[in-house]
Amino acid sequence: MQVLAFGCSNMGHSSHVSFRLPRTRCLPHSQELIVILPTSTSNQEVVSSSLPKSKVRSSWREGCRGSIWKQPLYPRVGLGAEFVGTFILIFAATAGPIVNQKYNGAESLIGNAACSGLAVMIVILSTGHISGAHLNPSLTIAFAALRHFPWVQVPAYVAAQVSASVCASFALKGVFHPFMSGGVTVPSVNTGQAFALEFLITFNLLFVVTAVATDTRAVGELAGIAVGATVMLNILVAGPSSGASMNPVRTLGPAVAAGNYKSLWIYIVAPTLGALAGAAVYTLVKLRGDDSSETPRQVRSFRR
């Protein structure tokens, strides 16, 4: 049986009126729903439910900010999801160029962009509610610097990302040897141009990620599509010039497996600086936008 109770306060006293409603399919027979409506002088609305905790869904935004890590089991589960997600991304993003080299141009630039973009989208949709699907040390550091993610969790996240990248790269080496060199991101332009490109495309990526991951006014359900499309766009723009890494572990793992460390520092420093700048700029824009009188939309869960 469900109980709907309305409570109001008057001069320090409270009263409740209860209504017994027919059983519906919304809640099991043993559960109770209580709705408390405050007086007109209160600005808060309290809604409590006896729904089991297992019904509560975590969102990608909570994962990105590390909120779900407050639960006892989530440190291990979150790290496992981050490892698997990064493994999938590096495997797919690196396999495209390797296949292109092995089969003499069979994988076009659009195909390489699709490999990375679709992998990002799939991983966000499948693991974003568990770990936040950072997949990128630059993103993790940028979120921590702007207080969207706890610093105490950064070393573990980065370790999971680096180890997943190395494992995925050696898995590819075992399958496609001796074509592993095709998956290493190396610049075809001078150092300054490569640095600028990596900075700018990572700036673009983190601007979008910060928008969909931290701003409740953004459409959370489309976060995976938005981030994946941004990755594809950046690869189409900068892929032929710098390799469009945007991610230190996208370059580090394949470099270790292939033994090619050419210009590695560019792909570590430039994406990290670009990520910090992109996240900071969106945060500044968001703060200025909060001054408007428009009421923000209700927070939506990334999971349906």
TrEMBL record:
<dbReference type="Pfam" id="PF00230">
    <property type="entry name" value="MIP"/>
</dbReference>
<keyword id="KW-0472">Membrane</keyword>
<dbReference type="InterPro" id="IPR000425">
    <property type="entry name" value="MIP"/>
</dbReference>
<comment type="similarity">
    <text>Belongs to the MIP/aquaporin (TC 1.A.8) family. NIP (TC 1.A.8.12) subfamily.</text>
</comment>
<feature type="transmembrane region" description="Helical">
    <location>
        <begin position="264"/>
        <end position="285"/>
    </location>
</feature>
<dbReference type="InterPro" id="IPR034294">
    <property type="entry name" value="Aquaporin_transptr"/>
</dbReference>
<keyword id="KW-0677">Repeat</keyword>
<feature type="transmembrane region" description="Helical">
    <location>
        <begin position="77"/>
        <end position="98"/>
    </location>
</feature>
<feature type="transmembrane region" description="Helical">
    <location>
        <begin position="225"/>
        <end position="244"/>
    </location>
</feature>
<feature type="transmembrane region" description="Helical">
    <location>
        <begin position="110"/>
        <end position="130"/>
    </location>
</feature>
<protein>
    <submittedName>
        <fullName>Aquaporin NIP5-1 isoform X2</fullName>
    </submittedName>
</protein>
<feature type="transmembrane region" description="Helical">
    <location>
        <begin position="192"/>
        <end position="213"/>
    </location>
</feature>
<dbReference type="GO" id="GO:0015267">
    <property type="term" value="F:channel activity"/>
</dbReference>
<keyword id="KW-1133">Transmembrane helix</keyword>
<dbReference type="GO" id="GO:0046715">
    <property type="term" value="F:active borate transmembrane transporter activity"/>
</dbReference>
<keyword id="KW-0812">Transmembrane</keyword>
<dbReference type="GO" id="GO:0016020">
    <property type="term" value="C:membrane"/>
</dbReference>
<keyword id="KW-0813">Transport</keyword>
<dbReference type="InterPro" id="IPR022357">
    <property type="entry name" value="MIP_CS"/>
</dbReference>
<dbReference type="InterPro" id="IPR023271">
    <property type="entry name" value="Aquaporin-like"/>
</dbReference>
